[in-house]
Amino acid sequence: MFTQIYLLILLLLSINAIEGSEFTINEATIQEIRTAFKQNKLTSKVLVELYIQEIRKLNPIYRAVIEVNPDALHQAQKADEERKANDPKSRSGLHGIPILVKDNIATKDKLNTTAGSYALLKSVVPRDAGVVKKLRESGAIILGKASLSEWAFFRSSTAPSGWNARTKQAINPYVATHDPCGSSTGSAIAVATSMVTVSLGTETDGSILCPSCANSVVGIKPTLGLTSRAGVIPISPRQDTVGPICRTVTDAVYVLDAIVGYDKNDEVETRKASKYIPHGGYLKHLKSGGLKGKRLGIVRDYPNFGFGNDTEILNKFKKHFMILRQSGATLIDNLEVTNYNDIIPMFLGEYIALFAEFKISLNAYLKELVDSPVRSLADVITFNKKFANVEKLKDYPQDIFLEAEKTNGIGELEKEALRNLTRASKLGFEKLMKENKLDALVTPYSYGSTVLAIGGYPGISVPGGYDKNGAPYGICFGGLKGSEPTLIEIAYGFEQASKLRKPPPIKNQL
């Protein structure tokens, strides 16, 4: 009895010590965490413990995390020892910082990599994904796996975003009925609710930009190949990319700096994109006054690309235009997309190409696994049919899978679709940007995601405010390949001038 009382007293003292500390994980930035490390007010081990506590409290509500890494505390302790010994590694911006990675990004550890599907549970990956390897080299702590729309939202056309078999439906922390959007839902929700400081998402078309917009966080969709896709459960090597989802532009840039660069397992694209990485990294582009002299394009006449003619949308973004102008940017308004009606039909080829690319690349990924219950897309389809009537594996039609399985490589139909997508990028976005000498195209929400996706262009989504119901929305800045330094200056300049982001309402966290 005495021992039990003694242990209870120790537990209460430890909790009070944490609660009495000046440091709080709520909305904490990387720089605030690093300062707390430096001042000996915080250790990585305590930080991980705090985040695990928060996940235990909030994840049953929001379902943003699939698994917590059982080795996270060990990694944190190692980081603390490195910092104490003044190891050169401890000077890295992400050293000792916990990060959640989306559950389609491979980790060679005790965590599963399943894309939210039971079909890949207990599968064994051959190695860390390229971006995870870079995170480990930077000293970041892999806290766990973020939930996602199952198979990165490429299984069913009727399943809602944020749903997967393993965690069920993820919930938007601002308005529970508001769509969490895209496939990197868990990565965005976990960051928004301070279950973690920073996270990684993936995008094929909108799955970083859209959940960032919908959950009031910052998302960077990098130029194709700037970050390695090796070890990521694929949809399309032509469109897939990996990027940070964080609460601030600064934190997103810390993560971007850590994960960019050449990877021998994604050799062709990462070698090509490496030329875009600025000497000294991206942090130097977090400039006050970063909007000064920037030329920003605005398209109004084309719905789901620009601002359209919707009065509500235009009124909602008037203040954003004013902030951009007052911060020194020049807005080139009412831009015309030459031959728009000829270009739009070319976009219809996106899914023709994606279906074939998905089957080819997924089969290759599954065959490379050390161990797996499924070895092909056909196996996954069979698995889903077999367990369709099991209650915990609530089934949505796997129509996208079925369409992809019908394909037979890159035939004439797919080649024509690919040619059209290339032409649409050259004659549409690139021509618009170059002829008007734009630094970025500004779009509401994530409306420009398909344009950026098919051309492999980068984009950054920044919180833009909240509607009358409290649901978040964002503003997106997109540019030509390799324009991340300029986009970072623009996004950071807007963020600092607007300060529009707010944490989720407390009532939604109880």
From TrEMBL:
Residues 1-20 form the signal peptide. The keyword Hydrolase does not apply. Transmembrane segments: none annotated. Pfam families: Amidase. Residues 47-446 form the Amidase domain. PANTHER family: AMIDASE, OS04G0183300 PROTEIN. This is Amidase domain-containing protein. It comes from Lactuca sativa.
